[in-house]
Amino acid sequence: MLTRIDHVMICVPDLPQGIDAYTRLGFGLAPGGSHPGQGTHNAVAFFEEDYLELLSVRDRAEPAAAGAVPGGPSPGLVEFLARGGGLRYVVVQSDDLAADVAAMRRRGVEISDPTGGGRRTPAGQDLRWRVASLGPRHPLPLLFIQHLTPLDERRRQAPRAGEHPNGALRTDRVYIVVPDVAQAAETYSRVLGLPVPRIQRGTVIKADMAVFDLGPTGLTVVQPVEAGPAAEALARRGPGPFQVLYRTSSMDAAARWMTDHGVPPPARGVRNTGEQAMLVGPEHAGGAYVGFVGPA
Q: What is the pTM of this model?
């Protein structure tokens, strides 16, 4: 069963600079380590049960050699970074990846077999998982993961996992911009095995959207309806993931931290749910939009 959004992968040309940018946004990041055979390294920020990943290339020779590895981040990564980087993949968690892959294939979805993946932390801890990626007939920016290392063990790599000056508690939604939301919702429905959601208006991102509920998180496909973040992202980068929204314990505390660390006050708006939300632009977040929702 697909249980939640596990994490987002934000790819940055320079990892130390990416860490500095997200530290200024109030995320408590920890060095993640390297991916053997992939030529990449990362930093992570753990929340209650999910996390944020900043990924970059540490050895340009390895991604080329690893280009055929199913589910790996390397194919096309150098080119993606050359265009400025940003939010590249939404990684969806499974509690039985083999069963989910089999179910997708029964629905006519092209997807790889689950393959083993891993990362060695700077402290020498080996983390293991299985991952599956969609095939060319379903080129969605999704990866599917089943962790083999328990959550408590994975969180030990971060000295103060879950403690963030911006009060971030968990991923609330991730947004993927498309030219036709109705058509995209049909495709995502088939891949995820979920009903097609009703179309609703996103008042902050200025787009029509279909929200697929995955546990406590929402995977959202959107079509711009007027000038705004979704339209800007589509024009700048084309279809793909462009925003992650975090649930915070205090938007005011998050905004104070950012302004104290050189980030302009985030733009605020009212969601279609009636909640206040605020949004940091891609120029301050490694090419992605980063939003926050929660009490003042």
A: 0.94
